[in-house]
Design a protein that fits this description.
This protein is 30% helix and 24% strand. By secondary structure, the protein is α/β, with parallel strands linked by helices.
Length: 472
């Protein structure tokens, strides 16, 4: 009889819990050590709560943006008020729903893991060499776990800017916003990456006056430039103040206000400030380097495409590796680690096929090679961009902003990437994602039926536009 492989996973977020399920399915004896709650930051404080908050914001925006055009009015009984929507948000109800939903999902995941035979330990893990984990349990006792292999999936924590430390009341990081009982009157969001842009858009939709402080030329510096331009335009049109090339130096609490000082000497005053200036990996003080795991200068764990670290038998997945800060990538890295560790069929991680989404309104979804990569000469590709304003369904729904973009190889017409800027772009990108993953040509994409009228019709149309007679 082959001996059972003992696997210990430190960190129970998507990197950890998805791996645990795969390892249990493959017959391993699996223990997960998690200090804050199964599901990790993704479920309890980051991904799930923010998207639940955004679900409310989305309803508010679509109503505010289109009710006039679509012929809807709100009658509060007062003559002459029909132009003023009387729709508002009760943040207490919203935040209660957010936290309950996150907690329920954490319980669901924990139950699923137990059903699969995984042992869950509530506590903090550290490595004692490459084959042993010491867990300090919540009751203060220690448990030593011998392992044939270890997976580290400890995630990351919001970066704190010195001089702008969150107080949890008015100066907040993204984990603390769900404790707010009232909507911020004037919210200053520092940081215009994905997290900053998502929260800025959401709070504006909920009714806050929002200023977004960006150190770069435009919002979302890491995203498709055309998409970022559309979003910045929409933000401004809805009344957001977007301050570009503005670096926040300090944030000070003054009674019921916050003062944000910028590097150029300007000051901004608001009722609350949300700091969204990136994250640092949870890798210090847990015996990683002592076990032979190489940490980069940033503190991230160096891994290869099958999630191996530099220590034999120690794997790592998710935000602690700094490969791609997405729950889906964390989960994929974790599963790959288990397949490799347990001798199953394994395909190395392929970042070229990752689909990602910015949950703003409109959403920005991308997959495969980017416009920047094409312009930098990393790949030769033809591009087509179609505005949604010409799509019949968009016209019917009063959608004026957004586009679809498709990239294909010049010779073969194989789809290598795409961008969708639209409501629910996160759903529409799946067609591009399938095309990229399965190496479909633009002609194959164009030949599949789409519903008329539908936003996905624009993706088929983009593929048709990329048809070249000389390829036939
Ligand atoms: C606001 C926000 C919104 C996001 N939205 C999305 C989204 O919509 N889609 C998406 O794909 N991604 C999203 N992300 C990114 C996503 O949340 C992360 O990529 C994902 O959480 C990474 O998973 P992980 O398993 O690496 O880490 P985590 O989810 O951070 O889980 C790690 C867990 O390990 C625990 N831990 C740490 N150290 C120890 C230790 N020593 N012992 C025991 N336990 C430990 C931590 O407490 C944590 O619970 C978002 C991120 C943020 C900040």
């Amino acid at each position: 009889m082959t001996p059972v492989t003992r696997i210990v996973i430190v960190g129970g977020g998507p990197g950890g819990y998805e791996s645990a399920l795969v390892a249990a399915q493959l017959g391993a004896e699996v223990t997960v050590v998690e200090r804050d709650g199964v599901g990790g930051a993704a479920v309890l404080t980051d991904c799930v709560p923010s998207k639940t908050l955004i679900a409310t914001a989305e309803v508010m925006t679509s109503f505010a943006d289109s009710h006039h055009e679509l012929g809807i009015y709100v009658d509060d009984g007062t003559p002459g008020t029909l132009d003023r929507p009387i729709v508002g948000v009760d943040l207490n109800v919203v935040n209660k729903r957010v936290l309950e939903l996150a907690q329920a999902q954490s319980v669901d995941i924990a139950n699923g893991l137990r059903r699969a035979g995984v042992t869950l330990l509530s506590g903090t893990g550290r490595l004692d060499g490459p084959r042993r984990v010491v867990a300090t349990l919540d009751d203060g006792t220690e448990q030593t776990l011998e392992a044939d292999a270890i997976l580290v999936s400890t995630g990351a924590t919001p970066r704190v800017l010195p001089g702008a430390e969150p107080d949890g009341e008015r100066v907040l990081d993204w984990k603390q916003v769900y404790g707010l009982t009232e909507l911020p009157r004037e919210l200053i969001v520092v940081g215009s990456g994905v997290t900053g842009a998502e929260f800025a858009g959401a709070y504006q939709a909920l009714g806050s006056k929002v200023t977004l402080v960006s150190s770069r030329d435009r919002v979302l510096p890491g995203e498709d430039p055309d998409a970022a331009e559309v979003l910045e335009g929409v933000f401004k049109r809805r009344g957001m103040r977007v301050m570009s090339r503005s670096r926040a130096q300090s944030v000070e609490r003054c009674g019921d206000s916050v003062i944000v000082r910028l590097a150029d000497g300007q000051t901004l005053e608001g009722s609350h400030c949300l700091m969204a200036v990136g994250a640092v990996p949870n890798t210090s003080g847990m015996g990683l380097e002592e076990a032979g795991v190489f940490l980069k200068e940033s503190g991230h764990i160096r891994v290869d495409r099958v999630s191996r670290t530099t220590a034999n038998g120690v794997y790592a997945a998710g935000d602690c590796t700094g490969v791609f800060a997405l729950a889906s990538v964390a989960a994929m890295q974790g599963r790959i680690a288990m397949y490799h560790m347990l001798g199953d069929a394994v395909s190395p991680l392929d970042l070229k096929a990752v689909a990602s989404n910015v949950f703003t309104d409109p959403e920005i979804a991308t997959c495969g090679y980017s416009q920047a990569a094409i312009e930098a000469g990393e790949i030769d590709a033809h591009t087509v961009k179609l505005p949604l304003s010409r799509n019949p369904r968009a016209k019917m729904q009063g959608i004026h902003d957004g586009f679809v973009k498709l990239f294909c190889r010049p010779g073969t017409g194989i789809v290598v990437g795409g961008v969708v800027v639209a409501p629910r772009a996160s759903e529409l990108i799946h067609a591009v994602s399938l095309a990229v993953d399965l190496h479909l040509t633009v002609d194959q994409v164009a030949s599949a039926f789409t519903v008329y009228p539908s936003l996905s019709g624009s993706l088929a149309e983009a593929a048709r536009r990329l048809h070249r007679r000389d390829r036939v």
